[in-house]
Amino acid sequence: MGTENEIINSISPCFQRFWLLDRNITFLNHGSFGACPGHVLEVQAKLRSQLENEPLRFFGREWEPLLDASRSGLGTFLGADEEDLVFVPNATTGVNAVLRSLRFAADDELLTTNHEYNACRNALDFVASRSGAKVVVANIPFPLRSHTQIIETILGKVTAKTRLVLLDHITSQTGLIFPIQQLCRELQQRNINVLVDAAHAPGMIPVNLREIDPTYYTGNCHKWLCAPKGAAFLYVKREKQPEIRPLTISHGANSKLTHKSRFQLEFDWMGTDDPTAYMCVSEAIEFMGSLVSDGWDGLMQRNHELVVQGREIICSALDILPPCSEEMIGSMATIPLPKVFDKYTHMSLHDRLFDEFGIEVQIVPWEIEPKLLIRISAQIYNTLEQYEYLGKVLRELAFILQTA
Amino acid sequence: MGTENEIINSISPCFQRFWLLDRNITFLNHGSFGACPGHVLEVQAKLRSQLENEPLRFFGREWEPLLDASRSGLGTFLGADEEDLVFVPNATTGVNAVLRSLRFAADDELLTTNHEYNACRNALDFVASRSGAKVVVANIPFPLRSHTQIIETILGKVTAKTRLVLLDHITSQTGLIFPIQQLCRELQQRNINVLVDAAHAPGMIPVNLREIDPTYYTGNCHKWLCAPKGAAFLYVKREKQPEIRPLTISHGANSKLTHKSRFQLEFDWMGTDDPTAYMCVSEAIEFMGSLVSDGWDGLMQRNHELVVQGREIICSALDILPPCSEEMIGSMATIPLPKVFDKYTHMSLHDRLFDEFGIEVQIVPWEIEPKLLIRISAQIYNTLEQYEYLGKVLRELAFILQTA
């Protein structure tokens, strides 16, 4: 296993060398936790040394300019005013901060979809159960024909009681890009606030918050921006900021400072923590944008094309059709596995691929038949040969299952 | 300034060499953010490399044993069952998690003291304002004669409506050790729950949670245990755990796992974050306990004796009396500054000491006369000469102020 992986994974050393990823693993799951380039980790290590050199000087004098500079780079990247952005450790925390700030009444309806990420669905259920509000689920089919299906299904569940809609920008299990700009417009025209869980979007597809114009939008920086773990952001529309409070109420609540909004004063300081991941976000954006000659547009296009090719390879190996059009995915592609794989659980199939074949890929349990999906990712360090290897292994496993 | 500091700070190189602290600074404020030894930071860096080597393997297989091992070491140190402990980034977040989990009614009284840390007081005010509950403040004098004053003042404010008492184990501004075991017993005998903010206690004084037996107890590991930034814990009494939920509701809320309590399943995973600071807590405990021959008892005793001597030096330099007995402080000592210093603000005095004399020490604004307090810390890397230098500088400043 080690040798075959080493051969496959040595084909694209020009980009792999920027990461610390194990060469003995065919790593096709950038989507779950991202992967941080060595250069960005080095910048973070320097910041940590700077902190430990004089913690009071760091938090008292150096911390805010470093945080603001990184936020500024992020704002430019996202097409957002930096005044409207705060850092949070992950998108799930961003979703929780918004949900737990809002007050719902017993009659309110909180709308989401069956593609929503489990952690955030739990947060929605939590605030609903506390207030007596009702969670309404729009069931979007998968496989899926068109964006129109997504929009119609969601709008079809809107009622006069709908107070908030929680939507993924890109769904976690199924890798679908939701037409979020159109959804935000349609819903806000109906006076409904939209909380967008964009855990996977920034760095996978172009994000312009001025164009999307959501009510609330939270995304991870440690996934497709390749920042260190624990870096994410929350955007809140200016006029909604006074009612959104951080989960940890701290000094910002009664700070006498006036150079920033209460929103930023509160979110920027939630007790002593390691802030260096946040401070590396702009560095990660710059580094990743420098890898190919046409910058971020080129990087995202390249990753998209690679995952589309990877999907074709796997579909062809398993003799199946892709579940949605190319335009509906970014650099993650989810494929329903043939029913014969249902003899595995998602964990047992993952573990077999990993332990026996050295392949790291996400296997997703799904609610209806077929019960297993496979989700591949493509980041610049990946190569076509890796998907070919996965396709070959899946074909072998399917053959064994069919003939067993 | 550089030279004088270098001479003063080179006297105790045998312990200073374990830290990254700037030798040009007389660093007398371990209390605010702690300081992490280079060895512990190296262990953390290795864990981070391990994470980035294969993020899925790390979070899927390696994360839980590493987290549990560190929690186990912490449990032993705190005299607590590891089942009753979860990690949080800081004590303020621990306080918020408890407060925001509890439900208060409009008539309830939430009792605290005037020595309570501002951030946690804000959290208390927040939950009070949301529920209509009332915050009641017990005013404990400073200077202070005895522990009896603390107990009597707090118990004197208890009424039939008192639902919860939020107390510091060691106060932040005034460095006082509260008789927390006796307070917990007295209050719980009256059926009142006690939330202890022990931000400064673990590693400064012996903490045995079985003996203290609080309802809720949260403490920092990055202060006096010298763990990396962003490491703290929350203890919740077994029977209270089902009602305490993390601030970020995530996968744990509906996890099908049964090898841990819901309390731990929920708190252990609050979205993707850098978990390496938590994983270094047991390493930090072991490392710090190995520095002197008599382990943690010796270390804490040594730090206590050093700060008591430091306090004497400063009081003598300013010709004032210490505000409380030696037994009431650990390794932080707060001294009210003579009224002549009131011409400074806490920030302007801090900045003058830092910028002109290279001294890092906490200056605390206080509510009544005298309006400025100075808080010194003693960690093993500190030396008597550093307090002598501070005393000399303060005496000079007082002289200038008096003759101006």
Automatic annotation (TrEMBL), chains A, B:
| Keywords noted in UniProt | Aminotransferase, Pyridoxal phosphate, Transferase
Named from the GO MF annotations, one term is: transaminase activity
InterPro entries hit by this protein: Aminotrans_V_dom, PyrdxlP-dep_Trfase, PyrdxlP-dep_Trfase_major, PyrdxlP-dep_Trfase_small
Report which superkingdom the organism of origin falls in.
Bacteria
Q: Which residues form the Aminotransferase class V domain?
A: 66-351
The identity of this protein, by name, is Aminotransferase
